[in-house]
Amino acid sequence: MSKNMDDFNRATALILEKLYENFPKKVAPLHLAELEKGIDQETLENFSATAEFLTDEGFIVCGNNMNRGTNISHARLTSKGLATLKMIPEAIDDNEKTSFAEKIEAVIKSGSNKAVNTLITQLISVYVKGGLS
């Protein structure tokens, strides 16, 4: 997978987790550079582009003020974003009843880029196929 896609998936997981844990409050500002330690300029630009994508696609809302792509003002999940994160995806094990939000938290803690990539791909697929847009 390309670096841009890895950054996109990681940023998506980190942004959604941050907004989910603060919901229904707005995060003002959301500091993209503080979502992950040791972030370089290229990764920060990908994180900023990811935040724009999530806004454009209706996962999140935010104020118009972006400080050179490093901060997003007044970010919050939309009802569609919240509903998607609360969904319990189909699992191999029927006993596993874990929401996307819980899975995101777990894969971030695990540090596995592969797990993050797989989960975010599944989340976006469910969002698109689920008719939540």
Structure description:
The protein has 133 residues and is mainly alpha-helical. It has a single domain (3-128), classed as Arc Repressor Mutant, subunit A, CATH 1.10.10. It has five helices and four strands, in the order αβαβββααα. It has helices spanning 3-22, 41-56, 79-86, 100-110, 113-129; strands at residues 30-31, 60-61, 71-72, 76-77. The strands form two sheets. A two-stranded antiparallel sheet has the order 1-3. α1 (3-22) crosses α5 and α4 (100-110) packs antiparallel against α5. It starts with a helix and ends with a helix. 29% of the residues are buried.
How much of the sequence is in beta strands? 5-15%
Strand and helix order: HEHEEEHHH
**Helix/strand-derived class?**
mainly alpha
Question: Taking all residues together, what is the mean pLDDT?
Answer: 85
The strand line-up of the biggest sheet is 1-3
Q: The biggest beta sheet, please?
A: 2 strands, antiparallel
Please report the distance between the alpha carbons of the first and last residues: 26 Å
Topology, please?
Blueprint: H1 3-22, E1 30-31, H2 41-56, E2 60-61, E3 71-72, E4 76-77, H3 79-86, H4 100-110, H5 113-129
Antiparallel strand pairs: 1-3, 2-4
Helix pairs in contact: 1-2, 1-4, 1-5, 4-5
Would you summarize the structure shown here?
By secondary structure, the chain is mainly alpha-helical. It has helices at residues 3-22, 41-56, 79-86, 100-110, 113-129, and strands at residues 30-31, 60-61, 71-72, 76-77.
